[in-house]
Amino acid sequence: MSYVKGPDFLIVGTMKGGTTSLAKYVDSHPDVCVHPKKELHFFDRESNYRRGIEFYLKQFNEVDRSGCKLIGEATPAYMYFPWIPERIAEYFPDVKLVFILRHPVDRAYSHYWFSWYNGVHSYPSFEAAIEDERRMLRFRDELHFRRYSFLDRGKYILQLERYLKYFDRSQIYIMITEDLKRNPGESMRGLFEFLEVDSSFQDPFWGRQRYNVGYSPKYLKLHSLITKFTSRPDRLGTLYRMVYSSFRSKKYVKNYLFRRGYPPMKDETRKRLLKFFHPYNRKLERFLGMKLPHWYR
């Protein structure tokens, strides 16, 4: 397949790692445009991918390119699915790839509650969900990988290694979520240098507003009843989720059903998961050439 002009960069992950904030920060740069629809899901969703590359390129016609030297999009699912790197490389071999990695235990816990919020599962506890994950991923299809990969998505080094089979290391930029939160100016300076735009640019609003804030249900039994319908894997389940999403978006309904934030994770669960992720984090540190001490507590 011959090279097709398209996005200059892709924010490819990780899910629940801060990609919404990162996309907003990048888009604030006067020389950079990020597609206003976060998560185009072209390379990871078969229903979109089968429509062809021209369908994908047409999506960028919606972007006001005036004054933009670079254009990109953010779809965090691109990092996780094993078939994505080859697909991207086929069409955009020179694209720049941006990864943002969050403490894998915190990411998994956020993923669990995010799935509750979206009505795609009804596990009564985080512990029940991660205990069942291995069984669910044995199905090895897109739906199960998308819904039940609470721990598997935190094996970042394995996903990065897949990209290195198709892209040069110089095309890859890796950020740490906790660094972006602690010092957004310094983190964005490095990214802008990578993108080769003015790295001195800073927006005073970086870090002041939270995006994609997590919610947890107030009434687990009620929500379990709802998700018996919305978590169905068939078309009827899709219809139920659409209705539920529209209903849930109403402010008074959202305030009644959900609270901001999550209940604390059990100490023994956190200790067990820190041990689980330890070998993957060590290998990632060697790859990055830096330590991540806060990921061990």
Structure description:
The structure is a single chain. The model has no long low-confidence stretch (mean pLDDT 94). The chain is of the alpha/beta class and 297 residues long. The protein is built from 15 helices and 7 strands. It is globular. The protein has one domain: P-loop containing nucleotide triphosphate hydrolases (Rossmann fold, 3-Layer(aba) Sandwich), CATH 3.40.50.300. 29% of the residues are buried. The longest helix has 22 residues, at 267-288.
Please provide a brief summary of the model.
The chain is an alpha/beta fold. The protein has 15 helices and seven strands.
* Largest beta-sheet details: 5 strands, parallel
Question: What is the ordering of alpha helices and beta strands?
Answer: EHEHHEHHEHHHHEHHEHHHEH
Structural class: alpha/beta
Shape: globular
Q: Residue-averaged pLDDT, rounded?
A: 94
Percent in helix: 40-55%
For the biggest β-sheet, the strand order reads 2-3-1-4-5
Strand segment tally = 7
Low-confidence stretches: none
Q: Within the CATH hierarchy, at the fold level, what is the topology?
A: Rossmann fold
Could you say what the CATH architecture is? Answer: 3-Layer(aba) Sandwich
- The CATH homologous superfamily is termed P-loop containing nucleotide triphosphate hydrolases
Give the count of helical stretches. 15
Distance between the termini: 46 Å
Radius of gyration: 19 Å
Number of domains: 1
Which class in CATH terms? Alpha Beta
Question: Beta-strand level of the residues, as a percent range?
Answer: 5-15%
